[in-house]
Amino acid sequence: MAKNRILSGMQPTSQLHLGNYLGALKNWVNFQEKDDFERLFCVVDLHAITVDYNPAQLAQATREIAAAYMASGIDPKKSSLFVQSHVPEHSQLMWLLATMAQMGKLERMTQFKDKAGKNKERAGLGLFAYPVLMAADILVYNATHVPVGEDQKQHLELTRDLAATFNTRYDVELFVQPEPVIAGPAPRVMSLRDGTQKMSKSADSDMTRINLTDDADTIAKKIKKAKTDADPLPETLDGLEGRAEALNLVTLYAALSDMSKEDVLKQHAGQQFGAFKPALTEVAVAHLAPITSRMNELLSDPAQIDNALRDGAEHARSIASKTLAEAQKTMGFFV
Ligand code: TRP
């Protein structure tokens, strides 16, 4: 049986926050302990240019995301780290898949609708085709498992659909159906100011999120100002129902200290937030400080990052070029 292969990626659009870390990176790192998995993690720079971006910052932002991967525990000896645009096979396969991607289906993608907004007529083709490139990212490696956030499930569905369409149309078994892995210690980290909104890099106020580059004082200030309610912490999870902000802080505490939410409540039941918040600050700082300092260390001498990315791309290309050649042959190209 083919080995399991896991692939995921993040966009170099801006600073990473706790939601990215607990919802994705920490989960990726867990896969490193699994021997029967080959791991590929990329920085998806080609996706980042589908919206307004700053060309003067793209390369550095790409490096920073790679630094965050490494600082979070992704080990280039155990996983291939690379930049999406360094493996041209992604774009090449995308074109082949684009011929099979139905406009109607792409129009139903909620992320496209959100990002295009009212100005759909002016949206670029790249934004519209974004999910097809993502499908190519995955299928060019025949990844079996793809850790993604809830909001990417629809894109994964489209990827599965394209794999099936290709296989059926050309009567081959070239592409495998990738499974989404929606997990992580805290798959949905919410805003510190509104427990019904996801923690997001696009939220206007920086007080809504904890960035991976925040220092201890900043983290303390943000947690202190986080929205809560006036009730003490309950003994069981049911007691957090209807208390979105309280639940979020308990979830963060649990994920950062590798405990279950139930155990966190057992330990802190009856506490007011005036007491719980400093405890949360302590685990957050203890967990994040080494990551932040490792990230800064890597970025101050980026040769290590750049070497890992070069080796990663070379390995990735060795897989991707075979799949692409197979797809081209199947489609009847003069190869
Ligand atoms: N669209 C994904 C996101 O915004 C990023 C992404 C691009 C991705 N290509 C991918 C994730 C391939 C997993 C696999 O989160």
Written description of the protein model:
- There is one protein chain.
- The chain is 53% helix and 7% strand.
- The mean pLDDT is 94.
- The strands form 2 sheets. The chain has a 3-stranded parallel beta sheet with strand order 1-2-3. A two-stranded parallel sheet has the order 4-5.
- The protein has 2 domains: 4-187 and 302-330, HUPs (Rossmann fold), CATH 3.40.50.620; 206-297, Orthogonal Bundle (Tyrosyl-Transfer RNA Synthetase), CATH 1.10.240.10.
- Helix 1 links the parallel strand 1 and strand 2 (37-43).
- The longest helix is centred in the C-terminal third of the chain and has 28 residues, at 273-300.
- With 335 residues, it is mainly alpha-helical.
- Bound molecules: tryptophan.
CATH fold type of the largest domain:
Rossmann fold
* Number of strand elements: 5
User: What is the count of structural domains?
Assistant: 2
| CATH C-level name of the largest domain | Alpha Beta
CATH superfamily heading of the largest domain: HUPs
Work out the helicity level. 40-55%
